[in-house]
Fold this protein.
Amino acid sequence: MGDSVGPHSALRSVDPQVAEAIEAEERRQQEHLELIASENHCPATIMDVTGSVLTDKYAEGYPGSRWYGGCECVDVVETLAIERAKQLFEAEHANVQPHAGSQANMAVYMAMLQPRRTILGMSLAHGGHLSHGHSRNFSGQLYEVVSYGVERDSGIIDYDEVRKLAEQHNPALIIAGASAYSRVIDFEAFRDIADEVSAYLLADIAHIAGLVAAGVHPSPVPHADFVTATTHKTLRGARGAFILCRKEYADRIDSAVMPGIQGGPMMHAIAAKAVTFKLAMQPEFRHYQEQIVANARAMADEFISRAFPVVSGGTDTHMFLLDLTDAGLSGEQALNFLACANVTVNKNAIPNDPRRPAEASGIRIGTPAITTRGMKEDEARTIAQWIVEVLGASDPAQAAPSVKARVLDLCARFPIEH
Ligand SMILES: Cc1ncc(COP(=O)(O)O)c(C=O)c1O
């Protein structure tokens, strides 16, 4: 086993257990349909850069101003990442060091807010993210939190409620952005509300960064004081995050990231972010983002036509929430049945969900990863039909194997190209 040849032969001889787990994961990805909205399959170039010698380098500080010697090469890389992020999103300042989306949000809070100040964000139960004020997250423990949600009937953000809560609670910061919301976010409306109560506006575009970069979703940059985003979701690149802001806040944001909440930047990840931004500037990236949305719309319409409701009645983005109440299944059950058909999703609360979060009444479905494999509307509709075939069956466990055989065939026709 240890001296075999193959893509991970060197690792196999050092650590066969990890090598086997990686190879198994490669097979799993090839043989499963990845519908988790926050996941994607990044290009081989991004993998190469992430595995480069830059992983060895310590570079506390920023380009041209480091605490360590030998930073001339990584300065080139970080400067490229910063300049490309600014160009791609038409922003005045970029910090590309946050290790992840949660750290990007933490840096903005730390830069601008004293502990116990009030933040107003979307509740997790209605589609927000943990780092927008959940009680078990640092954001909910350090700050006073007020949460808004979506309208009961339409599933659309209740902008009147946002305004009312802002007037009542006078937040120092309003967060616009979500993990499980399928409609265009009206950043201009959030700006108006923030101005009315003199609050800062943070747009968290972790999910929709690729759509925004390609002009497929309106950009928050002209409206928000701060924009946080991840590079590994719709942007289809490096694992990590970045912050955009107006020039006037640049120094506060930079020092909140380092030394505020992080030490040495991960230069291999920053180099991969630079490549991510370059790839996102290519014309084909726009086509890819348009196809992601076309695929999500085709799937959502197919579900609706087969009496599987979609929260808010459709999607403008890369994802949507399937409401399983009428199907009589929990999200947890659906996830497990679909896993037997080699279809990967995550369970997700729907707005005003009567079930506990660990069960949930919905699943979240996203199309970035299947679109990366080259699938288009026909395949998207077919996948939706297969999901209905499993979840709508009187015995879903019995329906899954036949769907799995077709999923394997589809995956073989659309391999992940690394
Ligand atoms: C809206 C939003 N913000 C922040 C994050 C956090 O990103 P990370 O998982 O990289 O910390 C996520 C992750 O899914 C997200 O959906």
About this structure: The mean pLDDT is 97. The longest helix spans residues 283-305. The pocket of pyridoxal-5'-phosphate is lined by residues 38, 100-102, 129, 131, 177-179, 204, 206-207, 230, 241 (CB under 6 Å).
